Amino acid sequence: MEPGNSDRVPTGIDGFDDICGGGLMRDNTYLLAGTAGCGKTLFGLQFLYNGATRFQEPGIFLATEERPVRIRRNAAKFGFNFEALENENKIAFIDASSTKIGMPSVEKYVDIRRFDMDNVIDQLVAVQEDIGATRCVVDSSTSISYMLNDPGKVRVEMLRLGSTMEVLGLTSILIGEMVPGDPTRGFYVESFLTDGVIVLYNERVKSVRLRSVEVYKMRGSEHSNKIHPVEITPRGLLIHPHEEVYGE
Ligand SMILES: Nc1ncnc2c1ncn2[C@@H]1O[C@H](COP(=O)(O)OP(=O)(O)OP(=O)(O)O)[C@@H](O)[C@H]1O
Ligand SMILES: [Mg+2]
Q1: Cα pseudo-dihedral 122, 124, 126, 132, rounded to 10
Q2: Atom number in ligand 1 closest to CA 177
Q3: Scanning 15, 94, 157, 182, which has the fewest C-beta atoms within 10 Å of its C-beta?
């Protein structure tokens, strides 16, 4: 186990903590935004996996879109064995996806009620009692906003979710799905409500796509103001903290 620091929560993602002063701020809520396929889920998984395996920090993954069974399978391809951690009560997946689409679920934690913020919060509190988590990932918060479908309500409910997670002692990442050309989804509201914003990019440059990451805001912390190259390696995300994507 690596030594912990009381007010920083290291993601343990290679290179990332170097661009944000050593890690996320404890008990804060972050928006991790990006377009489809840019590595958001992978980032969230690595944050939880590293927490549980290296920093003695149990974690909760609230899955509202991709079902946990698929997430575990994809994670295993990078060498992350979540099942073992779940058996040790170091990780919990909450399946808030299957019921919504009428699929049966074999998960330990399944949200079978109507999907609303009260239910989400009840689930988090219950799981928290079981595993004493200090990290949480919500994948994705965009589907929660879609469900609420009222900008005023989204604001209040997202604030409520963030405050609850803070009270529960969770350092949290809300995943926001950005749609090119539609700034109102996944970023616009959430970016003001959260303590920090991380943006993953996968942009076309000539005939290839370049992956990169930016710490867009981070309340209470210094951070890089550059856009850093990202690679997806067989071991997961790798950030180059000393390089810039669009540098000279
Ligand atoms: N084993 C692998 N090796 C290298 N790259 C991979 C591997 N598996 C997935 N990828 C890359 O990672 C991308 C998916 O990452 P991830 O699921 O984290 O993205 P996401 O931002 O969560 O996407 P979505 O918005 O669809 O949920 C794939 O599109 C692919 O480019
Ligand atoms: Mg995803």
Answers
A1: -150
A2: 25
A3: 182
Q: 38 CB less than 6 Å from ligand 1? A: yes
**How far is 24 from 15, CA to CA, in rounded Å?**
13
Provide mean pLDDT across the span 153-172.
93
Residue 41, ligand 1, Cβ within 6 A? yes
Quote the pTM value.
0.95
Task: Give tens-digit pLDDT for 66-77.
Answer: 999 999 999 999
Q: Give ∠ CA 232-234-237 in degrees, rounded to 5.
A: 35
The predicted model gives 88-94 an average pLDDT of: 97
Query: Other C-beta atoms within 10 Å of 168: how many?
Result: 20
- The values of phi and psi at residue 200, to 5°, are -100, 135
**Residues sharing a CB contact under 8 Å with residue 129, sequence separation 6 or more, in sequence order:** none
Mean pLDDT, the chain, integer: 92
Tell me if 39 CB under 6 Å of ligand 1: yes
Beta pairing partners, 63: 95, 139
Question: Does the pLDDT of residue 125 top 90, yes or no?
Answer: yes
Q: Which structural domains are found in the chain, ordered by start?
A: 27-220 (3.40.50.300)
